[in-house]
Amino acid sequence: MVFNSLEYFIFLPIVFVIYWFVFKKHLKAQNILVLVASYVFYGMWDWRFLSLILLSTIVDYFVGIKIHQNNNKPSYRKRWLWVSVIFNVGLLGFFKYFNFFVDSWVDMVSLFGYDIKSTWTLRIILPVGISFYTFQTMSYSFDIYYKRLEPTKDFLSFATFVSFFPQLVAGPIERASNLLSQILNKRTFDYNQVVDGLKLILWGLFKKIVIADSLAPIVDDVFLNYNSYPASTLILGVTLFSFQVYGDFSGYSDIAIGTSKLFGIELMSNFKFPNFSRNVAEYWQRWHISLSTWFRHYIYIPLGGSRVSKLKSVRNIAIIFLVSGFWHGANWTFIFWGAFHALVFIPVFLMGRNTIYKNSVVGENSFFPSLVEIGQLILTFGIVTFSRIFFRSESITSAFGFIKRILSDFSYSEYVHPQGYRMIDYYILIAAFVLYEYRIRKDERSPFKFKSRYVRFAVYTIVVLLMILFYDDGVDRSFIYFQF
User: Fold this and answer.
1) Residues 384 and 246 placed together within one structural domain of the fold
2) Judgement on whether residues 177 and 198 belong to the same structural domain of the protein
3) Measured between alpha carbons, how far is 53 from 247 in angstroms, rounded to an integer?
4) Cα–Cα distance between 106 and 266 in angstroms, integer?
5) Helix residue ranges per DSSP H, 358-452
6) How confident is the model at residue 126 (pLDDT cuts 50, 70, 90)?
7) Domain range holding 24?
8) For 147-179, what is each residue's pLDDT tens digit?
9) Cα separation of 198 and 385, whole Å?
10) How many distinct structural domains can be found in the chain?
């Protein structure tokens, strides 16, 4: 089941009504309902893989208890932690990376003159969301190991934490200290929280349907036929892909956060207007925040973080970005994408400018950004957009072919939409979207914050009309990050 489907808009109100109006006074019944709803939500994609979620839940539930029981036995604690790591990474390794490693090994051997057919590869289906829920359960074991958290003995609540349907398949990747603590405690109905949740759902659907889905045919056409287009069209295609992937993934996060609000649960912010970043470091503080935070807490800091020598800190940064690239998919394109971001991040770190924008936004004290800030925004957006050539391409060969085409063909020709629509409408749409997001850039949780109710009503009307206008039943409506 996906958020932008008819099934979901039947499913969600039913769960909401039962949750608040039937089980309002019974916390355990609410948690059972959410758990069942989560398994139904996931099972409608492929019920067979529910066993993986359940198995991951059981393993980390008992691992957490065992780590805590051996508080005075460091070696035993570490062994139990490795049980969690090996099990969850093993799941990822098999379902996500098995064929990649086999194919890479065959390619490497062929360099030495050995012709080996890849007979070991399997027809493995990648379970939706496996990269997200395995990281979430591992974080629970890590937090108990580092004594940041005590394990729960409430298996039902823990299972609900692992499979919580709003963020199950594409995040945010929540830590138990935030999500599990809310599941364990009684929630109360809050009208304003529900309204805020509905607003976020509407905004997320707008970004998905109007921005991401409407740009998808253009992006697909340009990347599929890059050899047939001049540099101007290729630059247009990868630029629109930047808006597509942002609208798609941040739209999902908005819907997830908004849906959680309907049930009295607050999830962490996953995006804070990354397109308004003034350097690459700020971009990574604003893009996919839950994953960046996960890597920081469980890999970067344990490796020594920035408290070690500059050389080791650079090593740690490189490791983080390479692992982040590999997390995204079993393809060398993602590893190149991660390596590229390491190369552009490290100079910012060495100059000591990686945290200077941590607690501020562009145009902090004025409506318009300064000329310097405009230059910074354009440069950062350009760097990030260039990296997405690797992110979007099917292979390293096609990625470098795409780049070579840009550098070798400087001609310009007007791009024609594959379905014959006017391109000017898309340019106006993107420009209006950027300006609107700039206006709300200081609060990612309030996309419709206007003092006048008439202005709010007008904005709601425009958003809904645009969703109706741009909705295309022929477009693949699945979310991009489902493949990760």
Assistant:
1) yes
2) no
3) 28
4) 47
5) 371-392, 396-408, 423-439
6) confident
7) 6-101+123-189
8) 999 999 999 999 999 999 999 988 899 999 999
9) 31
10) 2
**Rounded to an integer, what distance in angstroms lies between the CA atom of residue 385 and that of residue 236?**
10
Closest of 60, 54, 32, 26 to residue 42, by C-alpha: 54
With 80 as the cut, is the pLDDT of residue 182 above it? yes
Nearby residues of 4 by Cβ (< 8 Å), 6 or more positions away: 205, 208, 209, 477
For position 410, what pLDDT does the model report?
A: 82
* Residues 408 and 432 grouped into a single domain: yes
Tokens of 371: 């000329």
Report yes or no: 271 and 249 within 8 Å, Cβ to Cβ. yes
Residue owning tokens 């065992």: 66
How far apart are the C-alpha atoms of 95 and 265, rounded to whole Å? 31
Asked if residue 147 and residue 37 are part of one domain, the reply reads: yes
Domain assignment present for 107 = no
Residue 228 covered by a domain:
yes
Token readout for 21 is 């109006």
Predicted confidence (pLDDT) at residue 102 exceeds the cutoff of 90: no
- Kindly state whether residues 177 and 156 are assigned to the same domain: yes
* Preceding omega of 217 cis (within 30 degrees of 0): no
Enter the tokens of residue 394: 């099917």
Residue 79 and residue 60 share a domain: yes
**Residue 328 among the catalytic residues:** yes
So what's the pLDDT on residue 335?
Answer: 94
CA distance 348 to 417: 39
Residue 131 lies in a domain: yes
Catalytic residue among 68, 328, 341, 417: 328
Return d(Cα 134, Cα 294) in angstroms, integer: 12
Note whether 326 and 338 are within 8 A (CB): yes
